Amino acid sequence: QVQLVESGGGLVQAGDSLRLSCAASGRSFSSYNVGWFRQAPGKEREFVADIRWSGGIIYYPGYADSVKGRFTISRDNAKNTVYLQMHSLKPEDTALYYCAATIRRSYSRTAPAEYEYWGQGTQVTVAS
Q: What beta strand segments (E) does the chain contain?
């Protein structure tokens, strides 16, 4: 069982940066694949980024096209935390951001239904 808690959201101006954190409790978190998703009012939850465990010491990041080059996902397994560094924020990045985790080795990384564990979300609002 894994519990996830997001933090770091807030109200910023377009062009600013934010770093979101996803703190996890539970054993063997280093072997979980972790994704960030977001949901804006009236829209479906969408994939933002993920960091997939290779089975060894390497993790592979992946990004939605809409954030590629602006967002960076990373993790610190010693702290059981995954980060989402966001630069050059745009008003269209405004959403409730969730982190999610799965122990599955074969899954669709962009599909919310593939992740077993979810946090409560942290709000990011980007003013124009």
A: 3-7, 10-13, 18-25, 33-39, 46-53, 59-63, 71-76, 81-86, 95-102, 117-118, 122-127
Please tell me whether residue 112 adopts helix, strand or coil conformation. Answer: helix
| 95 phi and psi angles, rounded to 5 deg | 180, 170
Residue 101's Cβ-side half-sphere holds a number of Cα atoms within 13 Å equal to 26
What CA–CA distance (Å, rounded) separates 9 from 29? 23
Sign of the dihedral defined by the CA atoms of residues 29, 58, 115, 124, in that order:
positive
How far does the chain reach from its first CA to its final CA, in angstroms?
Answer: 40
Residue 106: band (very low, low, confident or very high) from pLDDT cuts 50, 70, 90: confident
User: For position 103, what pLDDT does the model report?
Assistant: 93
